[in-house]
Every structure is written in C-alpha cells, then in structure tokens.
Design goal:
This protein is of the alpha/beta class. The protein is about 50% helix and about 15% strand. It contains 14 helices and 16 strands. The longest helix is centred in the last third of the chain and has 27 residues. The chain is elongated.
C-alpha cells in the first residue's frame, strides 16, 4: 500500500513539474531582429552581415530581417545573400510594414531567406537590373546583365524551393505581385500582421541551414532588436540623394552668408561642413559632374552679384545655371537614386526668389538718397555766418563749413541751400521760400 502511495505521489510530482515547465518556461533562446529600410548599400550590407555574425556567435534560434526597400547596389546585395546562404542559423525575411515593398535587390534577398513572409498590403517584384551610373550601354551588354541576374535569382529560388519561373519573370519582365499572390504561387511561405504573429506562426517549422536541419522553437524566445549605430544611420542617410542635395544648398547658403557678412563665422562654418558632407554623399551616388560644375558656376555668379551688382544679370544667370545643374546632377536611371523633381524645383525657385528679393533691396538702397556723409549735405539748408562774396562760412547740419556761391553775393544770416560738395567746400545758393 505504501509503495502504491509513493508511486502515486511521484507520478503527481512529475505531472506538476511538466505543467510548470510548459507554462512558465523562461526564455532559453533568442531571436535577433534587424530592420533594413531604404536603399541597400555598403552601410546596410555591413549592418545585416554583422547582425548575422553576432546572432551566429550567440547561437540564436533565428534571425528576422524586417525589410522595406526599393532596391540598391548589386555588390551590397550579393554580400548580404552570400552571408544568408551560408548562415548556420535560420534567416527569416519579413517584408513589412503595410505599404512596404521588396523591390529590385530586395526580391533577391527575400528569396534567399529560409522563411519568407510578408505583411498585408505589401508587394514584391520588379527586379530588372538597372545601370546605376546611367551611362549608355549596348544591347549585348544589357542582355548579358539581364541573363546574369536571371540565372542568379533562379539559383537562389531553386536552393530555397521557391517559384523559379516567377523569379525569372521578376528580372526579365519586372513583374510585381501582392502578398496574397506571392503566397499562392510559392514565392513566400507566410503572411503575418506583425513580428509577434510571425514568431507564433514559424514555431515548429523545420529549417535546413548551412550546417544542420532543425525545428524552430520560437515560442517564449527573447527578441533582441539590433539597431544601426548612430554613425551607420548618419552615413546611411547621406546616401539619400535628396539629403545630399539639401546639404549642398545648405552649404551654398552658408558660404554666401559668410561672403555677404564677413567675420560672422557661423554661416561659413555651417556652410563648409554641409558642403563637405554633400561631396562625401556624392561619392556614393552616381552624379553627373557637368551638372555639379553648373551648380558651382551658379554659386560663383551669385557671389559676383554681391560684390559687383549688375541689377539682376548675374542673378538670372546664376539661377538658370543652378536649375539646369540640379536637373543634370543625378545620372542614374534608378528612381531611388534620383533627386526628387519637386525638391529641385522648390529649392531652385526659393534660391532665385531669395536673391531677387535681396537684389531688389540692394537696388533700392543704391538709389536711395544719402542721408549721411558729404553726399547727405546736398539740398540741405544752412545759415550764412559771414557774407558770401562769393566765399565765406555757413552753418549747416550742425557744423561750420567753408562755402562759396556761383557768383552771387549773399548777406550774413541768410538761408542757403547746398548744391554741391567739392572737397571741403560747399557750393550754395540763396534759398527763397515759396509762399
């Protein structure tokens, strides 16, 4: 009897222990979460590759790459894919949030993942290769590029067991599909509203990595967000052509402000830093140096206008040069590497309007009658202190001056009007008040 009671309690303790273990498990695995938003470039490539390496070193359960990209550089894309295909931990690419996309290079990266998922309201496709520099290429070279990209994406799709036919069409025909279409034709595996739902969905899925086949155990796993460092975020923002263009104009305004107000220092410092950052950004963006020279020429014309006012000729030439240079600045055919048309027009018009306003003020000042100095004495009224016959002294504008007339004699104490200023002598005439 005692033995039966002991056995019963042992069984009861085992059941309770099992229940407690199942329901109150502390996180014993981790999920690394990376976010890749914007253009794929060397900065984002370094961020993703470094994140995968850290996750591998910590033996994470998996890594989720939250993706929203218009595309990017082929070399950076291939660096990311190479690391993904050789990763020892499962890589999940999740195209999100709603309204996001995996276009161009993003298609390759999504297909290279162990698990591909999309949020509602997203799309994937349009992976036709684009010449980043915008230079003319012959049809033979263009065909070679398309064939190379098609073969590469088919290899990736085959390795991951995804729709090879659609993958090839995404390159050759630039087709793009929604998340519903993608899951129906075998481009992705899951649709999830958010990361938490995705983690629930992939729990228990069997994955084959470069080193082993395993079953994902994502339930109760700790999520470790991996964010870009401030330095990487800053450098990544510089690769945006619109940011680079704004920095260029900040530099222009700063330098012009320093030239028009020498010794103020602050505009010159801000302008110099902005120009340096703009030129650093232009190194990672394919630009037309003819357009850049036109912009610099426009700046030179504005500066000349400050020192040698031409009543608008140089300002008009500078504005024209600035607008033409801005349109020519980016020579890439890739939409995400071109400067926004609205930004070009607004910045160019704002600059032209500013200089037209400044010029009009300058013209008014030049035409304004002087009120100080010798020129300010002309048409002023004074009182003779001695007889002018034709020379003598007068009191005008609170000062005593030598004065002379043009042949007439004026008595002492009479009112006179200043006609001219010759050296230290004033030419005056008798002032006759009108009744």
């Amino acid at each position: 009897m005692k033995i039966k009671i002991i056995i019963f309690f042992l069984i009861l303790i085992s059941i309770c222990s099992y229940c407690l273990t199942e329901n109150y498990t502390t996180p014993n695995s981790s999920i690394y979460l990376l976010q890749l938003n914007g253009i794929i470039n060397p900065i984002t490539s370094q961020y993703v590759v470094g994140g995968i390496e850290d996750a591998e070193a910590k033996e994470a359960e998996c890594l989720i790459l939250q993706l929203d990209t218009p595309g990017g550089l082929d070399t950076s894309m291939r660096d990311i894919i190479r690391k993904m295909l050789n990763s020892t931990i499962p890589i999940i690419v999740y195209v999100s949030p709603s309204g996001g996309r995996a276009a161009s290079a993003g298609v390759f990266i999504t297909l290279a993942s162990n698990i591909a998922a999309m949020a509602p309201g997203t799309n994937i496709g349009a992976a036709h290769p684009v010449i980043m520099g915008g230079e003319e290429i012959d049809e033979e070279l263009k065909t070679k590029m398309v064939n190379d990209a098609a073969a590469y994406i088919k290899t990736i799709a085959e390795k991951r067991g995804r729709n090879m036919e659609w993958a090839e069409k995404a390159v050759r025909e630039s087709v793009s599909i929604t998340e519903q279409e993608a899951i129906e034709i075998g481009v992705i595996e899951f649709i999830a509203n958010d990361v938490d739902e995705l983690i629930e969905i992939i729990d228990g899925v069997r994955i084959t990595t470069a080193s082993e086949t395993r079953v994902l155990k994502t339930k109760n796993s700790e999520i470790i967000p991996v964010k870009m460092t401030f330095k990487d975020l800053f450098l990544h923002s510089l690769t945006n052509p619109n940011i680079a263009y704004i920095l260029l104009f900040l530099g222009i305004y700063g330098i012009l402000g320093e030239f028009s107000n020498p010794g103020s220092f602050f505009p010159g410092i801000v302008g110099g830093i902005s120009l340096v950052l703009a030129f650093v950004a232009f190194q990672s963006i394919p630009i037309n140096y003819g357009g850049l020279l036109l912009i610099i020429f426009g700046i030179a014309l504005f500066i000349l206008e400050i020192y040698t006012p031409t009543f608008g000729v140089l300002t008009a030439g500078g504005a024209t040069s600035l607008i033409l240079g801005s349109f020519m600045l980016s020579k890439s055919t890739a939409p995400f590497l071109r400067i926004s048309l609205g930004l070009i027009i607004s910045m160019s018009l704002a600059t032209a309007a500013f200089f037209v306003f400044a010029l009009s003020k300058g013209i008014k000042i030049q035409w304004k009658k002087p009120i100080t100095g010798r020129e300010g004495l002309i048409e002023k009224l004074g009182i003779t202190k001695t007889v002018l016959d034709p020379e003598g002294t007068i009191f005008v504008h609170g000062e005593r001056w030598q004065a002379s007339t043009k042949g007439e004699t004026i008595k002492e104490g009479e009112e006179v009007e200043v006609l001219e200023v010759k050296s230290l002598n004033l030419i005056v005439k008798k002032y006759i008040r009108k009744e």
